[in-house]
Amino acid sequence: MTENQSKIKWVMAGLLLGIFIASMDQTIVATAMGTIVADLGGLDKFVWVTSAYLVAEMAGMPIFGKLSDMYGRKRFFMFGIAVFLLGSILSGTADSITQLSIYRAVQGIGGGAMMPIAFAIIFDVFPAEQRGKMGGLFGAVFGMSSILGPLLGAYITDYISWHWIFYINLPLGLLALALIQFSYKESLDHSKQKIDWWGAATLIGAVVTLMFGLELGGKEYAWDSMVILGLFAVFAAFFALFLYAESKASEPIISFRMFQNRLFAATNAVALLYTIPFIVATVFIPIYIQGVFGGSATNSGLLLLPMMLGLVAASVLGGMLANKTSYRNIMILASIFVLLGMVLLGTLSADTSRILVTLYMIITGFGTGFSFSVLSMAAIHGFSPKQYGSANSTISFVREFGMTIGITIYGTVQSHFFTGKLADVFAGAGQTPEAMSTNPRVMFSEQVRSQIPDPILEKLTTALSISISQTFLWALVPAFLAFGFVFLMTKERMLINREQGKVKSKPKPNQQPS
Predict the structure, then answer these.
(1) At what angle do helices 476-486 and 327-345 cross, to 10 degrees?
(2) Residue 497 three-state SS
(3) What is the DSSP letter of 289?
(4) Which of 186, 182, 78 is CA-nearest to residue 124?
(5) How far apart are CA 93 and CA 281, in angstroms?
């Protein structure tokens, strides 16, 4: 192994660690939230703990992606790790929900720098013939960390302390920082461009107001309240200003000219829609397992492993297939598996066996896994190296946006179905919902479950399973839309000229290869 090859392997390890901790922190807090609220208080503000991270990360992605194209990837990737670790330390020391939310926003700024830049570095340092394989590996880590986050959060909270869901980032992050610092030698060929400050400011304003409206709507305030309508109105104003600013900027944060590339535009549409079934499955399968079968949060998270294995296998396979067939063909196959998985999950009931649930998870994970590698490669395809950061940050932003929108909308859908079924249960038991002073979460506590009469518990688990299966069936809507947009993707694939080490588009039937 040459010295250069050895350094590339260490660069890969550093990038993988960076992606792992940044993407894992999107979900690791979820299962620890009950313990955190019990310790710090602030039940009315706990939504900000997750939202602050996502909002800061989403707003930062296109900005840091653009800056990395202008001034170099290494400095901004390392900056992202440093800020992320600072936010992790502060989050572990928080003594109020408000403090924790602010510190999580600091973490999110760091995550917004790491996530889009890491994939762009792949195309900078890896030879053309290895990019598909590396893209598959990176996509697998991203998807795997999204599933491992809730599991690890539950385990650490149950057996150590919730503070350590943040402190665990320190050794991993410091190792990633050292690996990138000493192994990654990037080119100094960067274009100095004018920073689009107006675009950055209006984008942040639009993202923040939209996320607050979605998080508070139907929870803290009614959807038709002045507060929520006002937030959506401010979002519309900021978004309109953002579009205007980008149309006038010489070097916009998000270049609309990129969307003139049909493959790029269709890929982003697929990514937006494709993440919704993924996040719905990731969130509601553990709830179904714990609520119907019983057991701890840690055990229910462990049962997500089949889905994770299917996801990892598909992500790696997708990276390998990108050298052999078009991105579109791979995503057609993937979409079929996603549609099948959602249909099967839509058949879940209180009587479904664990074997069938496991099979359904493998199918769903296999279908979604392709997207994490293939769509990232398709988004960058056809652009120059100086645009890799912008292209990948855009699709990363779209993915995060899709996940956040998806969990907000489908969380409301599941809650609506479950509330309706609970009303039937209470009526059948001769009680009102108020008389049953139980939050639906009591079904997840083994101690409380043992005190609920069997006939009532059976009706509760039936109500929960029906609400979740109906939610999966509604998730077929974005899955079908994504399937349609896949056919709008062009037929490019990653073809390698091994003599020159370049990636080329597949020639059209009447076009001579160059």
Answers:
(1) 160
(2) strand
(3) I
(4) 186
(5) 32
Residues of the chain falling short of pLDDT 50: 1, 432-441, 496-514
Tokens of 422: 């609970």
Q: What would the two tokens of residue 22 be?
A: 């940044």
Whether the CB-CB separation of 236 and 209 falls below 8 Å is answered with no
What is the distance, to the nearest Å, from the Cα of residue 328 to the centroid of all Cα atoms in its chain? Answer: 22
Q: Identify the bridge partners of residue 272 per DSSP, sorted by sequence position.
A: none
Give the list of residues 6+ apart from residue 222 with CB closer than 8 angstroms, or none. Answer: 228
Q: Which of 136, 492, 486 has its CA nearest to residue 332?
A: 486
CA distance 215 to 218: 8
- Can you name the residues that pair with 497 across neighbouring β-strands? 502
The two three-digit tokens of residue 324, written as one number: 């052999």
Q: What is the pLDDT of residues 54-95, one digit of tens each?
A: 778 877 888 888 788 778 888 899 999 999 999 999 999 998
Instruction: For residue 502, give the H/E element and its range.
Output: strand 502-504
Other beta carbons less than 10 A from residue 351's beta carbon: 9
Instruction: Tell me, letter by letter, the H, E, C secondary structure of 87-100.
Output: HHHHHHCCCCHHHH
Instruction: Name the β-bridge partners of 496.
Output: 503
Q: Which DSSP string do the residues of 372-434 spell out, in sequence order?
A: HHHHHHHHHTTS-GGGHHHHHHHHHHHHHHHHHHHHHHHHHHHHHHHHHHHHHHHHHTT--TT
What are the structure tokens assigned to 478, written together? 């974005």
Rg (CA), the chain: 23
**pLDDT tens digits for range 85-133:** 999 999 999 988 889 989 998 998 998 888 778 877 877 777 766 766 6
| Count of C-beta atoms within a 10 Å radius of residue 93 | 12
For the chain, what percentages of helix, strand and coil (3-state, to nearest 5) are there?
75, 0, 20
Owner of token pair 């091994």:
498
